[in-house]
Design a protein that fits this description.
By secondary structure, the chain is mostly beta strands. Helix content is 0%, strand content 56%. The protein starts with a strand and ends with a strand.
């Protein structure tokens, strides 16, 4: 029998800094909830909205795999390895902080907000050489199916990280369904609804709800609203 944990959207931590509005699925910065520290190796899931022209100044990270998934607008990234890039919806960005990295993230546009997910995953190796990568994916490849966007393997689809983790994105018509099979025994999946409504393993979830599921080999998800979008994050428990 699978184990599940449901995090409703309105139960998340909230931060409003004026230029930044952020919802935290797990404890982060000023939001601390001892029952919401992580889901397995998934440490941070922040749902961020940054006002036009604003952003995060240069700051350090180490020994964390950091993934950004843009949802709306253009996000400009600069880092201490000399990378300056812009990511948009359809892209996925990864940074292995490893021995240490400094970076900044800014809204490229003055007159519209940028919305993105910031995700941190504990690595399976400490003090690796810092690394940056981003890829652009075909949105059509996630229509009524699950498109792999992240894995542990550099020759697989999407980006790769130093962890036995797999991410998939899907956009589904009303009533469309997909089966997800766990890639590595013992892993769990944290499902996050980006838009619309789904039924996952008999549990109804909707916009910005999170559902963790573990101790299972596979599960079904079914969209119950046209154009529903979901992110599945499989991680070691």
């Amino acid at each position: 029998m699978s184990k599940t944990i449901l995090h409703k959207a309105d139960s998340r931590g909230k931060a409003d800094h004026g230029w930044l509005k952020s919802f935290h699925s797990f404890s982060f910065a000023g939001y601390y909830n001892p029952e919401r520290m992580h889901f397995g190796m998934l440490r941070v899931l922040n749902d961020d909205c940054v006002n036009g022209g604003m952003g995060f100044g240069k700051h350090p990270h180490d020994n964390m795999e950091i993934i950004s998934i843009p949802l709306e607008g253009d996000l400009e990234h600069c880092d201490s390895m000399g990378n300056t890039t812009v990511i948009r919806k359809g892209d996925i960005q990864v940074m292995s902080a490893g021995t240490g990295i400094h970076h900044s993230e800014y809204n490229k546009n003055e007159n519209e907000a940028v919305k993105f997910l910031q995700i941190w995953i504990y690595p399976n190796k400490k003090n690796v050489a810092p690394r940056y990568d981003q890829v652009s994916l075909k949105m059509d490849d996630r229509k009524n199916k699950l498109q792999q966007v992240l894995s542990p393997n550099s020759d697989d689809d999407g980006v790769w990280i130093h962890q036995d983790a797999w991410f998939h994105l899907g956009i589904f018509d009303n009533g469309a369904a997909a089966k997800y099979a766990i890639k590595k025994p013992g892993n769990g999946v944290y499902a996050f609804v980006l838009k619309g409504k789904f039924n996952l393993d008999g549990i109804d979830i909707e916009n910005r709800d999170g559902l963790g599921i573990c101790e299972t080999e596979a599960f079904m998800l079914t969209s119950s609203e046209e154009g529903s979008e979901i992110l599945l994050m499989e991680v070691p428990m």
